[in-house]
């Protein structure tokens, strides 16, 4: 039997559903998902098996017009993910269509995807009437020579199998890159930090989720089979710390509870999670914070 293995990068505007699709393909929650834009910050790999083919999906941060150093590093990471891939899947949202943001991505694709196979996935088709998809498909294909167009709902699973089968065939021949039963290659301490950041993002409003970062500082395996995990949430301002803690510490307690529950489910055992909030006015300009996130600090220049 010939085996195949390769990389498929998922790119698109923030909120397009890239992480949802990766999780669906992998069959487990490897990458965090929220209803807010700019949830994913770094490249996250998830491994899916399809027959004799191994597809390594690369989830990327959304592509948008960056302002801050962190934004620039995120966008650079996204294009870096595309540059290394065998196939690029551009996700767009069916109900939003060909937005200005999508146009900007198409222009960049022209330069950055030379020689790569690029397919279009129109996502969230559960939100529109089927009739509207034809025109969108035409407009998109008039603007860029996609090899194929798929209509999917990453959340409901519609069309996901077709896309996976096509990608399985498109992967180059070669030995598998990961053991057959491996689904992710993110270290556990990073997955744990991401889970906490997801719960914070879901609970906090406006700019706050974009002004914080979570790091796992200590991870201790205990003799009773449980794990003690200590994490730090860095914020830039005193006021943010107050909001994060909430009245009588109720906000941070709720976040910690939700994160712990998900971690326990993911790990299949008991976890003791301790969160500490630290004010660090300059964290968005610190190289170490970026390497902890899996981002290249220099890309933010
Ligand atoms: N109705 C509907 N919602 C979806 C679908 N796929 C994803 N979503 C929702 O869209 C929102 C964004 O999903 P994500 O997977 O976080 O999007 P993303 O592209 O990874 O976003 P960033 O990480 O911010 O770039 C979430 O609320 C998802 O539940 C879909 O097929 N249908
Ligand atoms: Mg994402």
From TrEMBL:
<keyword id="KW-0699">rRNA-binding</keyword>
<comment type="subunit">
    <text>Monomer.</text>
</comment>
<dbReference type="GO" id="GO:0003924">
    <property type="term" value="F:GTPase activity"/>
</dbReference>
<dbReference type="InterPro" id="IPR005662">
    <property type="entry name" value="GTPase_Era-like"/>
</dbReference>
<keyword id="KW-0963">Cytoplasm</keyword>
<dbReference type="InterPro" id="IPR005225">
    <property type="entry name" value="Small_GTP-bd"/>
</dbReference>
<keyword id="KW-1003">Cell membrane</keyword>
<dbReference type="GO" id="GO:0000028">
    <property type="term" value="P:ribosomal small subunit assembly"/>
</dbReference>
<feature type="domain" description="Era-type G">
    <location>
        <begin position="4"/>
        <end position="173"/>
    </location>
</feature>
<feature type="region of interest" description="G3">
    <location>
        <begin position="59"/>
        <end position="62"/>
    </location>
</feature>
<feature type="domain" description="KH type-2">
    <location>
        <begin position="204"/>
        <end position="281"/>
    </location>
</feature>
<comment type="similarity">
    <text>Belongs to the TRAFAC class TrmE-Era-EngA-EngB-Septin-like GTPase superfamily. Era GTPase family.</text>
</comment>
<keyword id="KW-0342">GTP-binding</keyword>
<feature type="region of interest" description="G4">
    <location>
        <begin position="123"/>
        <end position="126"/>
    </location>
</feature>
<feature type="binding site">
    <location>
        <begin position="123"/>
        <end position="126"/>
    </location>
    <ligand>
        <name>GTP</name>
    </ligand>
</feature>
<dbReference type="InterPro" id="IPR015946">
    <property type="entry name" value="KH_dom-like_a/b"/>
</dbReference>
<dbReference type="Pfam" id="PF01926">
    <property type="entry name" value="MMR_HSR1"/>
</dbReference>
<keyword id="KW-0472">Membrane</keyword>
<comment type="function">
    <text>An essential GTPase that binds both GDP and GTP, with rapid nucleotide exchange. Plays a role in 16S rRNA processing and 30S ribosomal subunit biogenesis and possibly also in cell cycle regulation and energy metabolism.</text>
</comment>
<feature type="binding site">
    <location>
        <begin position="12"/>
        <end position="19"/>
    </location>
    <ligand>
        <name>GTP</name>
    </ligand>
</feature>
<feature type="binding site">
    <location>
        <begin position="59"/>
        <end position="63"/>
    </location>
    <ligand>
        <name>GTP</name>
    </ligand>
</feature>
<feature type="region of interest" description="G5">
    <location>
        <begin position="152"/>
        <end position="154"/>
    </location>
</feature>
<dbReference type="InterPro" id="IPR027417">
    <property type="entry name" value="P-loop_NTPase"/>
</dbReference>
<dbReference type="GO" id="GO:0005829">
    <property type="term" value="C:cytosol"/>
</dbReference>
<keyword id="KW-0547">Nucleotide-binding</keyword>
<dbReference type="InterPro" id="IPR030388">
    <property type="entry name" value="G_ERA_dom"/>
</dbReference>
<keyword id="KW-0694">RNA-binding</keyword>
<protein>
    <recommendedName>
        <fullName>GTPase Era</fullName>
    </recommendedName>
</protein>
<dbReference type="GO" id="GO:0043024">
    <property type="term" value="F:ribosomal small subunit binding"/>
</dbReference>
<feature type="region of interest" description="G2">
    <location>
        <begin position="38"/>
        <end position="42"/>
    </location>
</feature>
<dbReference type="GO" id="GO:0070181">
    <property type="term" value="F:small ribosomal subunit rRNA binding"/>
</dbReference>
<dbReference type="Pfam" id="PF07650">
    <property type="entry name" value="KH_2"/>
</dbReference>
<keyword id="KW-0690">Ribosome biogenesis</keyword>
<feature type="region of interest" description="G1">
    <location>
        <begin position="12"/>
        <end position="19"/>
    </location>
</feature>
<dbReference type="InterPro" id="IPR009019">
    <property type="entry name" value="KH_sf_prok-type"/>
</dbReference>
<dbReference type="InterPro" id="IPR006073">
    <property type="entry name" value="GTP-bd"/>
</dbReference>
<dbReference type="GO" id="GO:0005886">
    <property type="term" value="C:plasma membrane"/>
</dbReference>
<dbReference type="GO" id="GO:0005525">
    <property type="term" value="F:GTP binding"/>
</dbReference>
<dbReference type="InterPro" id="IPR004044">
    <property type="entry name" value="KH_dom_type_2"/>
</dbReference>
């Amino acid at each position: 039997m010939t085996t195949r293995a390769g990389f498929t990068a998922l790119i698109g505007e923030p909120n397009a559903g890239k992480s949802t699709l990766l999780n669906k393909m992998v069959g487990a929650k490897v990458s965090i998902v929220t209803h807010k834009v700019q949830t994913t910050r770094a490249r996250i790999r998830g491994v899916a098996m399809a027959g004799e083919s191994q597809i390594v999906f690369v989830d990327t941060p959304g592509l948008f017009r960056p302002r801050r150093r962190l934004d620039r590093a995120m966008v650079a990471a996204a294009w870096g993910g595309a540059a290394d891939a065998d196939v690029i899947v551009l996700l767009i949202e069916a109900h939003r269509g060909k937005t200005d943001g999508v146009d900007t991505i198409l222009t960049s694709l022209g330069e950055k995807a030379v020689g790569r196979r690029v397919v279009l996935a129109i996502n969230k088709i559960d939100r529109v009437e089927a009739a509207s998809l034809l025109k969108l498909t035409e407009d998109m294909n008039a603007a860029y020579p996609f090899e194929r167009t798929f209509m999917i709902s990453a959340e409901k699973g519609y069309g996901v199998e077709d896309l996976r089968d096509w990608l399985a065939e498109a992967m180059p021949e070669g030995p598998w890159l990961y053991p057959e039963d491996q689904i992710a290659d993110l270290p556990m301490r990073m997955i744990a930090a991401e889970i906490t950041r997801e719960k914070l993002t879901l609970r906090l409003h406006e700019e706050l989720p974009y002004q914080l970062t979570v790091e796992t500082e200590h991870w201790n395996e205990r003799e009773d089979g449980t794990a003690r995990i200590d994490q730090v949430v860095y914020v830039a301002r005193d006021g943010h710390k107050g909001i994060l803690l909430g009245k009588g510490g109720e906000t941070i307690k709720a976040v910690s509870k939700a994160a712990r529950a998900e971690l326990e489910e993911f790990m299949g055992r008991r976890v003791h999670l301790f969160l500490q909030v630290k004010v660090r006015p300059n964290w968005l300009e610190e190289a170490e914070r970026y390497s902890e996130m899996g981002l290249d600090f220099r890309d933010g220049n």
